[in-house]
Amino acid sequence: MSTSTFCPAVIVQEWRSMAALLSTFGCIRRDAGARLSLSRGELVPLPPMSPSARRAGAFCLIRPTCKGFSKGFMWLLSFTHWLSDSPTHAHIKVAALTSPGGEMAGRDMVVFPLDQTYMASLLGAGIDADQEVA
């Protein structure tokens, strides 16, 4: 059994259909494996960000809101220094980030579990492995 890390993330954009998502991201439109993963309700990482963003621990994911092609999708932005080992700590981080004067004040955020194996694949995609989980 693998353990989970809890990931607070900012909702950058939402779509109500796969077609709308694919019109925005050609990289997913061209990747049959990514489309299949999304239809199964799995997270799909977006291509690595700029070197400076990766050094800062930034990463983006597409997350289905439900299983199936006709359901919605969210484009999420997160940072490795936002990750937490418990859902409670992750929600406390979201409350701090979205409070008045916080880095993400006025933005909608979600918290979801990330499997450690999945995190390793993100690290392989260029996220700084030296970033600590809070």
Number of strands: 5
**Unreliable segments (pLDDT under 50, ≥5 consecutive)?**
126-134
User: Which percent band covers the strand fraction?
Assistant: 25-35%
| Main sheet record | 5 strands, antiparallel
Our measurement of the CA-to-CA distance between the termini, rounded to an integer number of angstroms, reads 22 Å
Order of helices and strands: EHHHEHEEHEH
Coarse shape: globular
Determine the structural class based on helices, strands and strand pairing: alpha+beta
User: How many helices does DSSP assign?
Assistant: 6
Mean pLDDT: 84
Rg (CA only)? 15 Å
What is the helix fraction of residues, given as a range? 25-40%
Spatial strand sequence of the major β-sheet:
2-3-4-1-5
Please, could you describe this protein's structure?
This protein has helices spanning 18-24, 26-29, 32-39, 51-55, 87-98, 116-124, and strands at residues 4-15, 44-45, 58-64, 73-79, 109-115. With 134 residues, it is α+β, with helices and mostly antiparallel strands. Strands 2-3-4-1-5 form a 5-stranded antiparallel beta sheet. Strand 3 and strand 4 form a beta hairpin. The two termini are 22 Å apart. The model is unreliable at 126-134 (pLDDT under 50).
